[in-house]
UniProtKB/TrEMBL annotation, chains A, B, C, D:
This is Thioesterase superfamily protein. SUPFAM superfamilies: Thioesterase/thiol ester dehydrase-isomerase (SSF54637). The keyword Hydrolase applies. It comes from mine drainage metagenome. GO terms for molecular function: hydrolase activity. Gene3D superfamilies: Hotdog Thioesterase. Residues 68-141 form the Thioesterase domain. The keyword Hydrolase applies. Keywords: Hydrolase.
Amino acid sequence: MRTRIAASGGATDAHNLEERAVDDLSAFARQIFESQPFSQFIGARLTGSGPRDAEISLPISGQHQQQHGFVHGGVISYLADNTITFAGGLALGGNALTSEFKINYLKPARGSLLVARAHATGVGKRQAVCQCEIYSVEDGEEKLCAIAQGTVVAAAQ
Amino acid sequence: MRTRIAASGGATDAHNLEERAVDDLSAFARQIFESQPFSQFIGARLTGSGPRDAEISLPISGQHQQQHGFVHGGVISYLADNTITFAGGLALGGNALTSEFKINYLKPARGSLLVARAHATGVGKRQAVCQCEIYSVEDGEEKLCAIAQGTVVAAAQ
Amino acid sequence: MRTRIAASGGATDAHNLEERAVDDLSAFARQIFESQPFSQFIGARLTGSGPRDAEISLPISGQHQQQHGFVHGGVISYLADNTITFAGGLALGGNALTSEFKINYLKPARGSLLVARAHATGVGKRQAVCQCEIYSVEDGEEKLCAIAQGTVVAAAQ
Amino acid sequence: MRTRIAASGGATDAHNLEERAVDDLSAFARQIFESQPFSQFIGARLTGSGPRDAEISLPISGQHQQQHGFVHGGVISYLADNTITFAGGLALGGNALTSEFKINYLKPARGSLLVARAHATGVGKRQAVCQCEIYSVEDGEEKLCAIAQGTVVAAAQ
């Protein structure tokens, strides 16, 4: 995860300004995330952000399961949708929404935690195309359980 | 919704058998749906089923929202994923799972209810390709807010 | 196919104006299509257009095949891409391009002709979401061989 | 491109056998590719292959263009479809076909050459999920112009 780390004292002014802009954007992302009732309801947390990246984590509990005890595909598609939104929004520098995405499920997810990481691969003025990987953490090991690809568009002002 | 309606007395035996098979499959679908903890948690109900069709409804409440008061995309993608699973499973005649899907959001969803309807457009021996429309019901009127397309594969026995 | 038919004399002026606008748009679509070298090279023709619809046909010949004698998936994906572009462009009223699409192949295509029909299902100011069906014509009968769904965006002026 | 390189003399027998298997599979892939009339017609060449990877290149000429002089999206979607087929077929070890894919166009393609590279990210017994990047080569520099994601299924024997 390309989460930004706070800079030390020796950085140039220009660098400091850029750092602050990224800090501000990360804070903005956290604030938006925390104002999403559904993300709170489902139990997700924004655990990383960068200029073109976002990471959302979700501790797995019984209520996330489908009929066979695996994580429901809808939980995984929520992670794809929302992580893509944040990676794209960070790349576009403000309010944004996912206009479409596609997901392939690779293997059933179980374990203690889901981690979704999205990266804005192609960034234009008004839209960003993002790729997302969703991992389940089982016995301390990350297993890739789904991949997604989608478009984020800047919200009309 | 092509929900099957119970047949009257004059039907032929062959017809009755087929009816019973459809009844059994619908009952099987309901049973599976009710054993999905996530579908219970999110508040969805299987409100229709047919030989190649499924309908899932979800009364909208505050916990389904994103930061602007609309329904979160993850709720809508859950509906696409699961309604496609049931339409495909009914078409394939048994246990099945969505292996991939794609969704386009057409307009923000709000109102009192979401209704998702999926139909298996192409059915083979081991997989079904389904299309799904997701409507929000606002002031008693259905508005198309997303369309999806995906693949359901028969679960290994 | 919702191809517009020339109006008779009794129409109102407003109706005539609208008819002319549709005629103009269809002529504009034909002109664009005929200026696509790849569409000429592959042997496709724009065989229908309407306010939100387009139809492209392609007589099948040996050069369109893959290794087993069926039509190559790339020919079918060309039809999906381009028919979606024209349906979306007609709906948006001008120059447009497909920004993304997804296709599911339902059955191998052979026969004498392919016909692709796209419809703009969701139309906004700057983008249209379209659905497309691609048929092969075998022994005079249309068989659905693929379905697609994608986004068309208005070209920057 | 993870194209296999011939092994030197010191390899173990097991290694030699595996090398030969990969050589055989690459030769098999080339043979299939060369028996695709549409790939010959459009002017594409299989320029790389590995246990889970394929690369297809296409020198750009006038006949590949759309109305504005860029490469037609249908040419790029052909590359996505076919490169995904070969990466998946190599990963599955035999005859295979693309059952579905999704593509996002990132920027208009022009220049002298297109290069598409696909990798099988998730491989099961009967299907492989692949990701593909399509580059245009302009002034000797590769520019990412589209990304795709799709499913390849083993052909019925």
